[in-house]
Amino acid sequence: MYKLIALDLDGTLLNSAMRLSDGNAEALRQAIERGFLVVLATARFYGLAKRTAGTLAIDTPLICSNGALVKRPADGHELLHLQLDHDLARELVALADDRGWETFTTIGDTTYMQMRPGILPEKLPGGLKIAERQSDHIDEGAPTCVLVYSQEAVDEIAHRFLPAYEGSARFSFNRPAGTPYVIITHPDADKASALEIVLRELGVAPDECIAMGDSESDLGLLRLAGLGVAMGNSPDEVKRAALHIAPTNDDDGVAWALQRFVL
């Protein structure tokens, strides 16, 4: 009945420590061995998605930057790449620098972030770099995505930027169990539209897909798929959009769903 499993990363496949648990990894490997396709769909940058895909030997196109980028890990071919309005990105990162918000700015193959205690720059995933001020790098190329964390950031961006740029950018506000965040992308970027591109590429119908997620950015995935599964740590709005609710991401919710519906 199902052929493909679409998975969000943060809050879904990865636990609160941003790690892939043994239980989720083993369940996915069993599903892949049985012939199921697995597609990762994340708000995060390509390098992180590619590292997780490599761990699981996934070679399907990766959906990154909340659907602004769809890229094959095998050959680097981009099926989709939508850029964010440059003036908006410049204003955003300048404000984020001044406020000291935790921010990730993706430009081409590089994602810039602030230094955190305990980070070893040489241990960062490919494409992730430390920047004291991200605004110093914003003119290096066309930005793909700006991801900003904290309730303060979500509130100020909603008040200051949403009215001015509504229609020319997509503001995806997410309030998961952890820290609230907002993802700013091209207006046509979203995970569901990106998944439709991947499904056409792979010859799979939406009703042959299982989608799992935990945040507002995953609502389109859950509604597009034949079977939508929300993690137990999801906000109520996300749970209402799903057909089933799994245990939390810290309780191997993905493995639970795979055991119930796939294996």
The CATH homologous superfamily of the largest domain is called HAD superfamily/HAD-like
Based on the coordinates given, report the CATH architecture of the largest domain: 3-Layer(aba) Sandwich
Beta-strand residue fraction? 15-25%
Count of helices?
9
H and E string: EHEHEEEHEEEEHHEEHEHEHEH
Mean pLDDT: 94
CATH class of the largest domain: Alpha Beta
Q: Numbering strands along the chain, what is their spatial order in the largest sheet?
A: 8-7-6-9-11-10
**Helix percent band:** 25-40%
Rg, Cα atoms, Å: 17 Å
User: Could you give the distance between the termini?
Assistant: 12 Å
Structure characterization notes:
β13 (227-230), α8 (236-241) and β14 (244-245) form a beta-alpha-beta unit. The protein folds into two domains: 4-81 and 189-261, Rossmann fold (3-Layer(aba) Sandwich), CATH 3.40.50.1000; 86-185, 2-Layer Sandwich (Hypothetical Protein, Haloacid Dehalogenase-like Hydrolase, Chain: A, domain 2). It contains nine helices and 14 strands. The two termini are 12 Å apart. A six-stranded mixed β-sheet has the order 8-7-6-9-11-10, with helices on one face. It has 263 residues and is an alpha/beta fold. The protein has helices spanning 22-33, 46-55, 86-99, 151-160, 162-165, 191-202, 219-224, 236-241, 253-261; strands at residues 4-7, 37-40, 62-64, 69-71, 78-81, 103-107, 110-113, 128-130, 143-149, 170-174, 181-185, 209-213, 227-230, 244-245.
At a glance:
The chain is of the alpha/beta class and 263 residues long.
Overview features:
263 residues; alpha/beta; Hypothetical Protein, Haloacid Dehalogenase-like Hydrolase, Chain: A, domain 2; 5-stranded parallel beta sheet; 9 helices; 32% helix
